[in-house]
Amino acid sequence: MSQPETVRDIASAVASGETTATAVLDERLARIEALDGSLGCFQAVREDTARSMATDVDSRIAAGEALGPLAGVPIALKDNIMVTGEPATCGSRILEHFVSPYDATVTERLRQAGAVLLGRTRCDEFAMGSSTEYCAYGPVHNPWDPERVPGGSSGGSAAAVAAGLVPCALGSDTGGSIRQPAAFCGITGLKPTGGRISRWGLVSFAPSMDQIGPFTRNAADAALLLQVMAGEDPRDDTSASSPGTGGIDALQESLQGLRIGIPSEHLSEENDPAINEAVHRAADVFSQLGCEVKPVNLETTELGIACYYVLGPAEASSNLARFDGIRYGRRAKNAGEGLEALYAASRSEGLGAEARRRIMLGTYVLSAGYYDAYYKRALQVRRLIHDEYARIYADVDLLLGPTVPSVAFKFGSHADPISMYLCDKYTVTANIAGTCGISIPCGTVDTDGIPLPVCVQLQGPVLGEDTLLRAAHQFQSATDFHLAVPPR
Amino acid sequence: MNAPAELSLQQVQHIAALAHLALSEDEFVAIGEDLKAILQHVHRLSKVDVRGVEPMSSPHSHCSRLHGDIPQQPLPVETVLNLAPEREGDYIAVPKVLDGGSAA
Questions:
Q1: Is residue A193 a part of any domain in this protein?
Q2: CATH number of the domain that B43 lies in?
Q3: At residue A64, does pLDDT exceed 80?
Q4: Where are the beta strands (DSSP E) in chain B?
Q5: Which among A341, A306, A252, A328 has a CA at the least distance from the CA of A422?
Q6: I need a labelling partner for A354 at 20 to 30 A (CA). Which of A152, A251, A340, A473 fits?
Q7: Into how many domains does chain A fold?
Q8: What pLDDT, on the 0 to 100 scale, is given for residue B5?
């Protein structure tokens, strides 16, 4: 029997007894067995623990117990989120043998909701990258075209959902690392408001911008996962104490009168033509749904990447200082004399090219004589970006534009760091300002004879997820772009 | 903001020392070129008028708070010690610190 595909359908079929958590899991394990050898999404598949979690769900349902909203739903976690007793390599050799001593808050909340933790997905080292080519354990291939990258840094999670290996997965988004791979793989990817979901147990890259979020097949599933994971956590002092989200109940209301702005700066002629066409296509759909769609200006767009590549590396250079070969992680064997040599040798052995580049950049912009010119100035520009968003969200409810300037690119084509960084030009500003955004599919474009997904991004204000998800859900109720799947 | 082209090899080596990274000569050159290219892009920030703009270190003002000074159950000491690459009894072993002595 073929099992349901979406999170909500799986949860409801398991709860009603139409299927079992074990049957759902078996089907996904069979797909992983058949496909992941060539895709490379998974760093580790936890068949044994997943099977025991599924069995537990099935026996509790048989006993008539009430279970959580994700009971029996398989989920994959990006390899920078802690699960007790499991490695969390962060795609880095320096954490190859590290074993998490505790659960992340999201892990705890997924367990309480009855989810089946199926395994760990590959990512760029310490979530720094836009292609997953910087994963120390091997590349992940885009399920639409194996010669192309899945995006990054959460490329394993995005590709796993797109290929149907799991119905949902978690990623983290510091500058676009959920939305960009979701766009390259043709699925739905949500970056919640900074602080919406606890970061406890997420390995830090740049805490003022890091945010955990879900990859799913549709916005309704994203709303359900957000509702399970969101909410104050005493262990993360930046977790929002404001009321939670309305979950799927908040999605039904009509979009009549909703004001959607399209930033002119996002419809650049440097974008692939198919990307701009998708934005216009989406605008037409929203107009038909009763929205007032109008052009707006987001003049700080062109400052986003420059600001991000000061702030992100500055925070990363400080955070990654903890990987020194002393308390955990890799320690160099023949480091030479003394403690300083041990630090340097361990870090140089364990950290890859992009992580080193960002640590160096961050160290530079924080160093004596350069702090004011780079770091302080970037913090001032951050306020300008933040304030411009705040002004715009007084005038419109949401923003619509491209998620990325191009479709998924080929391996090795973005070896120059700047070209890689510019993939995130439309996503980083939401991280800098702490607002929310979602990438949703909006068609495919034939490229070298192969259909590739094109996606659009909706952005919303701080804690604006209910409206953001409602717009995405209504869009998906009126269209079938999100139902397209890669050729198998 | 200095013109990025001024980043010298000595500066790159100094940054690497601050960052506790041991790089080869080739790596110093390559990473120096990368940093210059990135700083060239970042240079556009210097043209922005930021007079009177308060720096914003975090956008989390809607949720940041202080928490009470309440003791919590820590991780078990044995669990934490087992994460260390080298231990001696209840201690994490490290090379000598004071006289630059031999490895642990």
A1: yes
A2: 1.10.20
A3: yes
A4: 87-88, 91-92
A5: A306
A6: A340
A7: 1
A8: 55
Query: Is B104 part of a structural domain of the chain?
Result: no
Q: Residue B102: is its pLDDT beyond 60?
A: no
Structure tokens, A79: 């390899």
Say which DSSP state B22 is in.
Answer: -
The reply to whether B11 falls in a domain is: yes
Q: How far is B8 from chain A (nearest CA, A)?
A: 12
Q: How far is CA A380 from the centre of its chain?
A: 27
Contacts of B38 in chain A (CB under 8 A): 309, 357, 361, 417-418, 421
Could you tell me which of A130, A154, A138 has the C-alpha nearest to residue A80? A154
Residue B71: inside a domain = no
Contact A344 B21 (CB under 8 A): yes
pLDDT at A224: 96
> Number of C-alpha atoms within 13 angstroms, CB side, residue A474?
24
Assigned token pair, A24: 């759902």
Over the stretch A107-129, which tens digit does the pLDDT of each residue have?
999 999 999 999 999 999 999 99
Choose, out of A100, A198, A363, the residue to mutate when testing the contact with B (most B CBs < 10 Å): A363
CATH number assigned to the domain comprising residue A100: 3.90.1300.10
Is the pLDDT score of B103 beyond 70?
Answer: no
Answer yes or no: do B59 and A310 touch at CB < 8 A. Answer: no
Q: How many domains does chain B have?
A: 1
Model pLDDT, residue A117: 98
Q: Is A432 a member of any domain?
A: no
- Distance CA(A104)–CA(A116), nearest Å, equals 15
Within a domain: A265 = no
Q: Domain containing B33: what range?
A: 4-47
Q: Is residue A443 part of a domain?
A: no
In whole angstroms, give the CA distance from residue A176 to residue A108. Answer: 25
Contact criterion met (CB < 8 Å) for B80 and A101: yes
Give catalytic residues of A, as residue numbers. 78, 153, 177
The encoded tokens of residue A5 equal 């595909």
DSSP designation for B74: P
> If you average pLDDT over residues A292-301, what whole number do you get?
98
The answer to whether B38 contacts A421, with C-beta atoms less than 8 Å apart, is yes
Residues A138-156 have a mean pLDDT of 97
Structural domain boundaries, residue A224: 7-256+464-483
Measured CA to CA, the distance from residue A370 to residue A4 in angstroms comes to 56
> Given a cut of 90, is residue A249 above it in pLDDT?
no
Query: To 10 degrees, the CA torsion angle through A278, A306, A124, A39?
Result: 20
Contacts of B69 in chain A (CB under 8 A): none
Predicted ipTM of the assembly: 0.93
A191 contact residues in B (CB cutoff 8 A): none
Q: Which residues does chain B have within 8 Å of residue A347's beta carbon, measured at their own beta carbons?
A: 19-22
- CB burial of residue B69 (10 Å; 0-12, 13-18, 19+): exposed
Question: In which band, very low, low, confident or very high, does the pLDDT at B1 lie, cut at 50, 70 and 90?
Answer: low
Using CA atoms, how far apart are residues A428 and A178, in angstroms rounded to an integer?
Answer: 11
Q: What is the largest CA-CA distance in chain B?
A: 58
Q: Beta-carbon neighbour count of residue A332 at 10 Å?
A: 20
Mean pLDDT of chain A: 96
The whole-number average pLDDT for the span A158-172 is 98
